[in-house]
Write a structure and sequence with these properties.
The complex is a heterodimer of chains A (242) and B (396).
Chain A (H helix, E strand, L loop, with lengths): L6 E10 L3 E4 L3 E3 L4 E5 L6 H9 L6 E6 L2 E2 L5 H11 E4 L11 H12 L3 H14 L15 H13 L5 E5 L7 H18 L2 E5 L3 H5 L3 E4 L11 E2 L15
Parallel strand pairs in A: 4-9, 4-10, 7-8, 8-9
Antiparallel strand pairs in A: 1-2, 1-3, 1-5, 5-6, 10-11
Chain B lengths: L1 H11 L1 H35 L5 E4 L4 H8 L10 E2 H8 L4 E13 L2 E6 L18 E4 L7 E4 L1 H7 L6 E2 L2 E2 L16 E7 L10 E4 H7 L9 E2 L1 E6 L2 H13 L4 E3 L1 H12 L1 H30 L1 H10 L4 H42 L10 H27 L7
Parallel strand pairs in B: 4-10, 6-9
Antiparallel strand pairs in B: 1-12, 1-13, 2-11, 3-4, 3-8, 3-12, 5-9, 6-10, 7-9
Helix pairs in contact in B: 1-2, 1-11, 2-9, 2-11, 2-12, 3-8, 5-11, 9-12, 11-12
Classes of the chains: A alpha/beta (242), B alpha+beta (396).
Bound molecules: adenosine-5'-diphosphate and magnesium ion (MG).
The site of adenosine-5'-diphosphate (ADP) has 12 residues of chain A, from strand 2 and helix 1.
């Protein structure tokens, strides 16, 4: 089964050196679906997003997005896939230091192939929609944490990616703002029809999602751990910490 | 996109960019000005030996003759009788015979006695006179002097100033200097040539004769004659005739110059060594700033990769950042060397005794500048390769 926004993760395993050997649950998400990825710290959530984004390659298993078998792509193709099809909100936002909000968004747009006045217009529009219309030329240092988070969101979505990945998007926000941020993130993804994966271990964030995947079950276990919507607390494995 | 990112990165690292720019500009200016200085000094020295055909002195070492009479760096061999000069001056084959007399100094600057014909000497017959009065006029009677450019600066002599000379070729510390009673008046200042005359005080040779009580032609001495013949044939006949005579020798200065060159340009070696040091320092600074920039670049490179920039793009960004900085630094450096030779030429002149011509933007110069470019960009190659090889996920 394929389709523009259809994501499948199957038998995925990542190894790094002698110490890191991570297995991930199988799951799939249909186009426009919104999922939460949960699990304790060190479980491999960020690694999973990196695998899906094509930043890392698995030693086994497959990541398929739409018609693209991401895990089999060569590096240059993965770069292009990441630039065009993926929007990524990094855990620490990772805005380009010294670049203004507009420039950060333009950077993402430029790498996806959109340049010139058209890109400027689009970047300004996205920032304005996210309430940053009067912050276009502020550098990350001149922005509040919440504003930075929204610039990161703007950069991740400006090129209208079919897949939006967010790594702990609320980790640096206080309780109230976290709620608003998740609503904004989900609303933005929904407006674009993008498939959304949000890594979080914030119960409040988890609660907003009807589908949750737990990462970090015992290595080798291939069972997808989809938690029921009514079960708000994820089950934490006993030996989750490295 | 590469250029777009590059320009912003340069802006973000404004200070580092500025410092690299400065280092490259200084290195460039040094590389351009140093040969200019050396060339100017060497040319000044060489020219001084080319404004006449033959140096005629008392018999002795030709090297000593050139060092003493042209560069004031040695004691003269001795005086020749005035008659030797008189005979040369009235010879049919002579275009010009310029007498030189030594023996006095003013604060270690040689007082050179000559005639106004000294100022008719030229490098080629169709060129203007080589020694020019910058301000004031030539001496018109005994005890009027014109002062060389760096000599004037060194002891602060101005038009209208008067001074008394001392006996001997230089001032002797401690020893009671024997000052003459006669007083000189500065009536002219000479334009700088880069050569030894810049360090001299030039007067009518009559002044020296009067001071030393050589009142009759028989008692007068001439240390050297700068001789120019009417034709090449005349030149050789005068030379051989002089060498055959008992009281004098004729030296072709060009032949001796090669031998005394290293001696005359002694200070130049130290100066060149110093410039190499400055150049190395500038190169080191360039490399350091390029290296420092590459350190805080690791994160932004990883970020670019994570956003989908390919290896070629980040390689290009890092290399272009340095290439642009180095290129701009080179242009600034060329501008700086013009500025140095325009403004600093005066300053250098007072220190080193010559004025600096502006560099002429010819192919040789452009070649030298162009050669610095790959050298600078080479510094960026390791960080650029590092950026291209870095893993996108590692730094995030
Ligand atoms: N490139 C890597 N180098 C070293 N260790 C790694 C690397 N990638 C992942 N790990 C390890 O894998 C585990 C999972 O990390 P991560 O995916 O960041 O977990 P989470 O995001 O769930 O907290 C950690 O123990 C981490 O140290
Ligand atoms: Mg993580």
């Amino acid at each position: 089964m394929t389709g523009r926004g259809f994501l499948t993760v199957q038998g995925l395993r990542y190894r790094h050196g002698a110490d890191v050997d991570l297995s991930f649950p199988d799951f799939s998400a249909h186009s426009g679906e919104q999922l939460a990825l949960t699990g304790p710290s060190g479980a491999g959530k960020t690694t999973l997003l990196h695998l899906i984004a094509g930043l890392l390659r698995p030693v086994a298993g497959a990541v398929r997005f739409g018609d693209t078998l991401v895990s089999e792509l060569g590096e240059a193709q993965r770069d292009a896939y990441r630039a065009r099809s993926v929007g990524y909100m990094f855990q620490d936002f990772h805005l380009m230091p010294g670049y203004g909000a507009l420039e950060n968004v333009l950077l993402g747009l430029g790498l996806s192939g959109m340049r010139g006045p058209q890109a400027r217009q689009r970047a300004a529009e996205v920032l304005r929609d996210l309430g940053l219309g009067n912050r276009l030329h502020h550098s990350p240092r001149q922005l509040s944490t919440g504003e930075r988070q929204r610039v990161a969101l703007a950069r991740a979505v400006a090129h209208r990616p079919a897949l939006l990945l967010a790594d702990e998007p609320t980790a640096h926000l206080d309780h109230d703002r976290a709620g608003q941020a998740v609503t904004l993130l989900r609303q933005t993804a929904a407006d674009m029809g993008a498939t959304l994966l949000v890594v979080t271990h914030d119960p409040k964030v988890m609660g907003a999602f009807t589908r949750r995947i737990e990462v970090g079950a015992r290595a080798g276990s291939a069972a997808p751990e989809t938690i029921q919507p009514d079960n708000l607390q994820p089950r934490l494995p006993q030996s989750a910490h490295p | 996109m590469t250029l777009w990112i590059t320009l912003r990165n340069l802006r973000v690292r404004g200070w580092a960019t500025f410092l690299t720019l400065l280092a490259v500009a200084l290195a460039t200016a040094t590389a351009l000005v140093v040969p200019l200085v050396s060339k100017q000094v060497e040319r000044g020295a060489a020219d001084a030996a080319q404004v006449f055909d033959l140096l005629i002195t008392a018999k002795g070492s030709p090297t000593q003759a050139v060092l003493s009479s042209l560069f004031y760096l040695d004691v003269p061999i001795g005086n020749m009788p005035y008659a030797v000069y008189q005979k040369l001056a009235s010879d049919q084959r002579t275009l010009r015979a310029v007498p030189l007399g030594f023996g006095d100094n003013y604060r270690s600057l040689p007082v050179v006695g000559t005639s106004t014909r000294f100022f008719e000497q030229r490098l080629k017959p169709d060129l203007p006179p080589y020694f020019r009065v910058q301000s004031g006029r030539l001496f018109g009677k005994p005890f009027e002097v014109v002062v060389g450019a760096s000599a004037a600066r060194q002891v602060g002599l101005k038009l209208g100033d008067t001074f008394r000379s001392a006996h001997g070729l230089e001032e002797h510390a401690g020893a009671e200097t024997e000052e003459h009673d006669a007083q000189y008046t500065v009536v002219g200042l000479l334009a700088a040539t880069g050569g030894p005359v810049d360090r001299a005080i030039v007067t009518d040779i009559q002044s020296l004769w009067q001071i030393h009580g050589q009142l009759t032609p028989e008692s007068r001495g001439v240390t050297a004659v700068l001789y120019t013949a009417s034709s090449l044939g005349d030149l050789y006949s005068v030379a051989s005739q002089t060498n055959a005579s008992p009281g004098a020798q004729a030296v072709f200065p060009g032949q001796v110059f090669a031998g005394v060159r290293s001696f005359v340009l002694q200070g130049q070696a130290a100066y060149a060594a110093l410039s190499v040091l400055v150049l190395l320092l500038a190169a080191l600074t360039t490399w350091l700033s390029v290296y420092a920039a590459s350190l805080d670049r690791a994160r932004s490179v990883a970020l670019l990769r994570a956003l989908g920039a390919g290896r070629a793009t980040v390689f290009g960004v890092v290399l272009l950042e340095t290439a642009l900085t180095v290129a701009l630094g080179l242009v600034l450096g060329v501008g700086l060397s013009y500025l140095v030779s325009a403004l600093g030429g005066e300053l250098l002149g007072s220190r080193l005794g010559f004025s600096l011509p502006a560099p002429i933007l010819d192919w040789a110069l452009l070649g030298r500048v162009a050669a610095l470019f790959p050298l600078g960009v080479l510094a960026a190659l390791p960080p650029a390769v590092g950026a291209a090889r870095s893993s996108a996920a590692a730094q995030l």
